[in-house]
Amino acid sequence: MDAIVALCKRRGFIFQSSEIYGGYNGFFDFGPLGTEIKKNIKDAWWKDMVHRREDVVGLDSSIIMSPKIWQASGHVDGFSDPMVDCKESKMRYRADQLFFAPVIVDGENVGYVSVLEDGEMQAEAEEKAANLKRKLAIQGELAPIELKEYTEADPSEYEKIPSPATGESGSLTAPREFNLMFQTHVGALSDSTSVAYLRPETAQGIFANYKNIVDTGRVKIPFGIAQIGKAFRNEITPRNFIFRSREFEQMEMEYFISPDADWETCHREWIDWCKSWLNSVGIPNEMMGEDVHPLEKLSHYSKGTTDITFKFPFGEQELWGIACRGNFDLTQHQEYSGKSMEIFDESTKSKYVPHVVEPALGVDRLFLAILTAAYCEDEIDGEKRTVMKFHPRIAPYKVAVLPLLKNKPELVERAQSLYEKLQRRHSAFWDASGAIGRRYRRMDEVGTPWCVTIDFDTLEDDTFTIRDRDTTEQKRIKEEELFSLLDEKLY
Ligand code: ATP
Q1: Positions in the chain whose pLDDT score sits under 70
Q2: Among 271, 278, 355, 403, who pairs with 283 as Cys (CB 3.0-4.6 Å)?
Q3: Domain span holding position 414
Q4: What is the predicted pLDDT for the residue at 192?
Q5: Does the beta carbon of 360 sit less than 6 angstroms from any atom of ligand 1?
Q6: What is the whole-number distance in angstroms between the Cα of residue 244 and the centre of ligand 1?
Q7: Statement to judge: residues 190 and 328 lie in one domain
Q8: How many domains does the chain have?
Q9: Whose CA is nearest to atom 8 of ligand 1?
Q10: Exposure pattern of 273-283 as b/e (b: 16+ CB <10 Å)?
Q11: pLDDT tens column, 214-262
């Protein structure tokens, strides 16, 4: 993770927001190459989700919408995480990410340990328990440490659980619900009547426009509405770089189906579609998993949710959630707005409020997964190199044009003409300075799949040397072959 974060900064992918003022927690800025990668991720998704499907249309709704939408959707009352404060250090934690356990020696409770959720928390808690036993100079057998979420603590235990910040007990509060929506005011007045929210998800913009699209588009059940856009959540503990931030982008799609449709099959089809799409942007199957939410943990309206997980450097975590939301959202909006959300189904000649299957993915979270999957260190001719093996669709530059020598006008001119032609269709990079090996290395580090060198042979037969980033193999190629290679690989 440290290597990825350092590379992102060094090569201008991602910066901490407001860095010159010491940074601003939970916000990030994307530099020149990060912007290209993010745009490539969104373009690939849009192309495959909207352009290449006949049953999905696009939408771009506003970020701030009527607060009634968030009342109807349940976000005003229920979009919260349990939080716990340390009164001593003023640190704030998510209660479901703070774990604790009683330390039991020879059957007797001698104190508590606490740890923050991560892949190694069990080992950390065991070490803390052993330290406590040593500190108290107690002999006897330490019982196995059984960690529980702070939300499951008995109120009598709050006082006894040590704060992760100070290591001392007595400063943690009881868990309280904290609404994650950012509030603002719309209009000149700043009172309770002007409160509005920055959207915490793009999905509600889709439900709120569902009627407009049904009335104006030629959509027929089953069909989907897709949207890409910013979402904001006042996360209690933003962490793990861009994995969990307070401002992020989502790519969501609501797929409307008949209430009588076989939703389980539809759900499975979307999970499979999402996994194969992830393959197409460079996420291999072995880095993915599936997490089926147990029935008792589902929201009351949900019939089933499966997360596609990814093996991040800090553990396997949710990447893409695929939820069957029934007709909860549309019926809520029907009730709150008084407008009918029914659709007339030509095929069955019946009217109903459709159900939905929703694949919801974070652009930034996928960006981190792509960085993780692409990051590679290897050795070429005895020299260590860092190479980002981005899928060509995602790579910020598709091709680099390198004239062998910058003081030979014939070479530079031929290279320039190729570069200009490439630029019309692709993001290409020009680099004329430094030894050729160094130039290759610079392109490897930002993941440029191909480098094309214009050398003296080019002046004889008009072929170039093309070098493959992953294998470092080189061969001679003609201009038209280069363009067909790019066409084929950048589908
Ligand atoms: P989590 O449990 O990680 O908070 P969630 O289940 O609340 O996520 P959803 O509401 O299902 O997430 O959002 C859909 C997708 O949006 C997630 O799968 C994730 O990719 C992305 N996402 C959600 N919250 C954040 C965040 N704070 N920062 C970056 N991406 C996020």
Answers
A1: none
A2: 278
A3: 397-489
A4: 84
A5: yes
A6: 7
A7: yes
A8: 3
A9: 318
A10: ebbebbeebbb
A11: 999 789 999 999 999 999 999 998 889 999 999 999 999 999 999 999 9
